Amino acid sequence: MTITASRAVDAPQAEPPARVLLADRLFSGASADQLEHAAVAIASGQVVWAGPRSELPAAYADWPRQDHGDATILPGLVETHAHLGSYSRAAQPDVPDPARHAVAWEVLSSVKIARQLASVGVTTAQSLGARDYVDVALREAVKAGLVDGPRIVAAGPPITLTGGHSWYAGAEADSKTELRRQVRLHHKAGTNAVKVMATGGFMSHSTAPWNAQFTVSQFRALIDDAHRLGLHVAAHAHGSEGIRRVAQAGVDYIAHASFVGPDGRTAFDPELADQLASAGVYVDHSAVPTYPPVAGEGFAARAYQLYQHGVRLVVGHDIGAVLPASAYTWGLRQLEQAGLPRAEVLIAATSRGAAAVGLAGVTGVVAPGYAADLIVAAGDPLADLTALDHLLEIVLAGRRFEPDPVARFDPQERLAAPVRAPLAPDDARAAHLERQRRRAAHPLPRG
Ligand SMILES: [Zn+2]
Description:
Blueprint: H1 5-8, E1 19-26, E2 35-43, E3 46-52, E4 65-67, E5 71-75, E6 77-82, H2 102-119, E7 122-127, H3 134-143, E8 151-154, H4 176-189, E9 193-197, H5 216-228, E10 232-239, H6 240-249, E11 253-260, H7 270-279, E12 282-284, H8 300-308, E13 312-314, H9 328-338, H10 342-349, H11 351-356, E14 374-378, E15 391-396, E16 399-400, H12 411-416, H13 425-441
Parallel strand pairs: 1-4, 1-5, 6-7, 7-8, 9-10, 10-11, 11-12, 12-13
Antiparallel strand pairs: 1-2, 2-3, 5-14, 14-15, 15-16
């Protein structure tokens, strides 16, 4: 017998209440336009009607209503690159044998991150890397009403080379057969997506961000198998060579796209950007200002260049691994400062983000038939993005969510203390030679 989560919970959840939300403005996410004097009727977790208040059908006239006045109803925000279940190794249970509690610790910290995301208005989060498939369990726990949190799209542990970037998440593979096996293990565990580490990263000691981790034909084996099983594929790629290879192999989504060259410096490649645009690959590029820069460079300019080339930008900040949930709206303002129009930023953060995580037609738009995943911002975010820092309501699948207090994000503090100083290419080689030298000078004692 299979015990489902809902059967294990004593009291089934009550239906979310039917009601009408009113506000001076509605940004539906379906276009860059806004509707004035809007009404949105929600019932059973769905939007059942949205339009001008004066045209609200009589059927909804006696439903409970909340008039927010000078405010804007928007689709809830979408974080396309979170980590729900990859706790920092610096924080662990204060007991003699912390490893024994690793999974429980990952679960509990992922619940906290999920609640914090919801508290800043994120109603959908794609988890791009979690140990022990914690994100899959969390997704089901949210659906079953065990915990409150955003709608979750889960990728499980990222697939990587043995000893490659994030190897400690537990999904190593070195051949096409092993890559296919990992995809099937993910499918068996119930993920919605697969994340592959296409290049090294800044935070693993054993890798370099400019090196590609697999060949085109290996990527193709993984992607074809994932697609056959209905899973979309997101690739972590800092280096240009890795970006080129996954694009050629038919990837759906690229995290970072930092264009790091073989010399360890970033160099935008317009042809490669055109290739991403014409293939319709989704790209998250929002965490960039806080990443440890390569050889003194920042990546901020890339977002605007990608936008100019018509690449489908979405909003993913590596929340839970690099940035806290409170950085979300700050990240949106960074995109605006990089040169993206505000409407483009809002579309990236809502309808396009939903499409990027496989939820087109499900959430990300305020229209009949979509989930009632909504936020109400005081003022007008299309005129000033800081309106998103003052939310009057957060609605998760039709239920009003009471936010947790979230400390304000301080970018200065974050920039002053990078996660880990990156190695320059020559340093990486020097470190390798130094290890060889030490090993030769200190041979292991014979037993
Ligand atoms: Zn990440």
